[in-house]
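Hi everyone, sorry if this is the wrong subforum. Our group has a chain we'd like a structural model of before ordering constructs, and none of us has done structure prediction before. Sequence below.
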Amino acid sequence: MNVMERRKNKNKSSIPSQMENGDLPSTSTCSNIRGDERNILLLFFLYTLQGIPLGLSSAIPMILQNRGVSYKQQAEFSFVTWPFSLKLLWAPIVDSIFSSRIGRRKTWMIPSQYLIGGFMLLLSSHVNKWLGEDGSAPNIEVLTFMFFSLNFLAATQDIAVDGWALTMLRKENVGHASTCNSVGQTTGFFLSYVLFMALESSTFCNQYLRTVPETEGIVTLSGFLYFWGIVFVVTTTIVAFLKRETDAANVDHERDLTSAYKSLKSIMGLPAVQTLVVILLTCKIGFSSTDSVMGLKLVEAGIPKERLGLMALPLIPVQLAMPLVIAKYTTGPKPLNIFLKAIPYRLAFGFVAAFVVFITPTLVPDASNGLPFYYVILLFACYALHQVCVYCMFVAQMAFFAKISDSSVGGTYMTLLNTLTNLGGNWPAMLALYWVDPLTWKRCDGGAESIDNICRNNEEKVLCEKVGGKCVTVLDGFYIETLICVAIGFLWYLWGAKKVRYLQQLGDNAWKLKNKKSQKS
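Answer:
Right subforum, don't worry. Here is the predicted structure as tokens:
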């Protein structure tokens, strides 16, 4: 009887650790949110808060583009997106080191949200100066540091909330946590990117929301940051004092920390995973120019940034339906087949994107008078086709990751692969932004002594203007870069398609960690 009780207690205590690793125990109990409504609403709100820094980090490059910053500076600012791609490095620490008095998850969530609120309040007082509204050049270094810090704190909060969701919700409702995550982050991103850019634009507000035109939008960046800074501080205080955290069971947290890093090392040691790592880190090189530069080039050509943001609205139903449509192609033994089929179309879209950027000044000589209807349809069609390719690849990847992940290490496997996927998009995008200016050919047109001036930097640009000339672009580096990226992409496809098909043919044992513990008979 003592043996049976010990085994029963062991099984009970193993459930929380399985849940922490993302390996949810099977249960025959159907989901019933009755009694968990407030917890689900709280999770939705916490995930919405995460989306606010993410959306702002996407809006700032559009604002900077209107301030005339270089693409090298845009590349520098793109570092702010890296924390969510690297959070796996400190996630085990967040999961393992905590104060029992405060709570395992609140130990990290509460300080992170207070700091986010503090950073936003600080930004609200200085962001206009750092953006160069007083006539000076934007301070890219400070802006990068501030928004990198915001995203680092948001990523840390994400780790804590992900873990808290597993114990906040009843066991049969844990599946709703992923819904809260995706819907909440999307809501936050929408509020701080699409809605903010629309309400911050004086043109949009004067055209659609006002009867008397004004020089500023309804919302300013400093006011938006101040509002959300207060929201973070107030709501964090409420959660800190009114929401108690209950851990499902005692877990050997020190062991969790060491075993998590050992698991990562073991996973990376698998030959199949090493091949997959190379694929994930290189497969997006061919798309990097289109994905990271096209939108900025359209803003540079005069297209209002809020119009580009609003393009996403009609596609929300499509984005929600795409996983369901693609599911029948990704549930079989070879989910990456649709991934491979989408790559040539997405690469070919690079030429379409370059063509759209090229003809934009001709089709829209003055965007202040509004965008022609046919141009809006053209942009929307391009964006829709691009998103279809993106979602096909994304859903196929997630299906393959779920298929190969070793359940013995649970969420660590999936999180590692997702991290590598994000990194595979971040570093090519950064380089694509950096190389736009060096690849651009310019000359000083008109004025004395303009023959030897090719406007390579601000000094030569100032010199050109002093002698009565004007720097003109002979060949935009975006077109050269797009051609190079697409060429690399098709070369990668010749190599990568074979490797992907090979990985799909491997058995489950190629992806599983070997149990090195000696078994005693």
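For your construct planning: Confidence is low (pLDDT under 50) at residues 1-29, 248-255, 516-521. The radius of gyration is 25 Å.
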